[in-house]
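RECORD TYPE: protein structure
NAME: TolC family protein
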Amino acid sequence: MRKKIVFKTLAFILLTVSIMGCVPQQQVVRRESNAVPESFRSSTDSTSIARVNWKQYFADQNLVALIDSALKKNQELNITLQEIEISSNEIRARKGEYLPFVGLRAGAGVEKVGQYTRDGAVEENLEIRPETRFPEPLPDFMAGAFASWELDVWKKLRNAKKSATLRYLASVEGRNFMVTNLIAEIASSYYELMALDNLLGIIQQNIAIQTDALQIVKQQKDAAKLTQLAVNRFEAQLLNTRNLQYQIRQDIIETENRIAFLTGGFPKNIQRNSAAFNDIAVDSVFSGIPSQLLKNRPDIRQAELQLAAARLDVVVARANFYPSFRITAGAGFQAFKTAYLTSPESMLYNLAGDLMAPLINRNAIKAEYRNANARQLQEVYNYERTILNAYVDVVNQLSRVQNFSKSYETKKQQVDILVQSVDISNNLFRSARADYVEVLLTQREALEAKMDLIEIKTKQMNAKVNIYKALGGGWN
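PREDICTED:
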């Protein structure tokens, strides 16, 4: 008896070793690189504005109210929250796979066997007294508990649960990244709306100036000092300026509607103080050091967690080549009469252990294993690409902040000079010391310069928003 047990044990060990010997070796996947430069070009700051709360970074109370509303009502953000809940439930499902499954079972049935079957022939050939003969048809009543448990010898199930946990954490980081983008999009749209208001105001001011100039030209034409050509040119310029306002009004409506959509509401009037747009200061940007991006940027942390999950998926896929062990057990009562159902003689139980291992035609397992390795390599490249993209984004936005600040100051000086030139040209024209063409050109140049100034200011504000986003601010 002992020899049989020893032989069976040795046979089991040899079978397991032979199966494990057929398992392919894990493919070599290069390690990811998270090395970044020591600084953002000439910047040597050690403090990052990403740590500043968005309510402090965007001091405009109207903008703060819009962002706060969006964080509560934005539909896309709420959809992402449900995806996080789905990921959380996946963890529970994975955790349950390596715990025993226990269930209760109860049943009742009836059976009539044929006389010329195995069961029917046995019953007819036995000398059974009429009072102890099986009922016909034969009822069957059963109640009991049954359990099954796959032994997680190779930690396949536990690694699958850890992988699900990492993907859940990655989905949380994805939500944080969406918050950062949502805050930036609302802030950019809000500043764009303020810029459009200022553009409309500039056009309306120029309409008033050009209307006065047209009246003067008409008076001089009536006095035979000018021809109808001058009147037509002034009137054409006035009509062109008036036409500009309609596109801007349409842009204002669409921008307001976009902000309302982002805040989860229907179109409405957006409160803002557009008069202070040109006075909004862009403070010095503290970018910190590039290595801080690895902690501040949610998309980098998301890529890192996805890479860690992909590594565990490779381990899980490799474990599919190993034998799996399952224990099944059951206990209960079964009888053909309910009166006998609780008697000790009606008790039944079973206990079994199964070993199963893939031996022939393992193409599906091999394919999944290779796919897991390929997905792991994909996540390595994605992680490195995310870091590189974050660094380039910060460098670009730092440059934009500096250059647009200088550009705004230069353009502002040009606007001041052209505004003075408009007054000078009008005075010279009234005293017949300047040609009307000079007045037209000066007014046109002043209008274009003022509109360019608003456009540069808008880019400057977008750079302020985007550098905050690029450094990973807003989500915390």
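COMMENT: The longest strand covers residues 138-151.
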